[in-house]
Amino acid sequence: MLLKTLSRALAGLAVAGVFAVAVPAHAQEGGVGGQLEQSSSTTPKEKKEFSTAALAEMQAASKSVSKLLEQAEKEKDIVKIQCLTKKKAGIQALVEVSESSALSMEEAIGSGDTQRADHEFRKVAVALSKVRQFLAEADACVGDAGAAPGVTEVDVTAEGLTDSEDTEPIYDGIIDVDVDPPDTSPYF
Question: Is residue 163 part of a domain?
Answer without folding.
Answer: no
